[in-house]
Amino acid sequence: MTSTTSHSLGIAAKGLRKAYGDKTVLDGIDLAVPAGTVFALLGPNGAGKTTAVKILSTLIAADAGELRVGGHDLAVDPQAVRAAIGVTGQFSAVDGLITGEENMLLMADLHHLPRKEGRRVAAELLARFDLTEAAKKPASTYSGGMKRRLDIAMTLVGSPRIIFLDEPTTGLDPRSRHTMWGIIRTLVADGVTVFLTTQYLDEADELADRIAVLNDGRIAAEGSAEELKRLVPGGHVRLRFSDPAAYQSAATALREVTRDDEALSLQIPSDGSQRELRAVLDWLDAAGIEADELTVHTPDLDDVFFALTGDSKIPHQAKENVR
Amino acid sequence: MSTLALAVRDSSTMLRRNLLHVRRYPSMTLNLLLTPIMLLLLFVYVFGNVMSAGIGGGGADRSDYIAYLVPGLLVMTIGSTVIGAAVSVSMDMNEGLMARFRTMAVYRGSVLIGHVVGSVLQVLASLVLVGAVAVAIGFRSTDATVLEWLAAFGLLALFALALTWIAVGMGMASPNPEAASNMATPLILLPLISSAFTPADTMPGWFQPIAEYQPFTPAIETLRGLLLGTGIGNNGWIALAWCVGLTVLGYRWSTAQFNRDPK
Question: Which of A18, A312, B133, B209 could form an SS bridge with A26, CB 3.0 to 4.6 Å?
Answer without folding.
Answer: A18
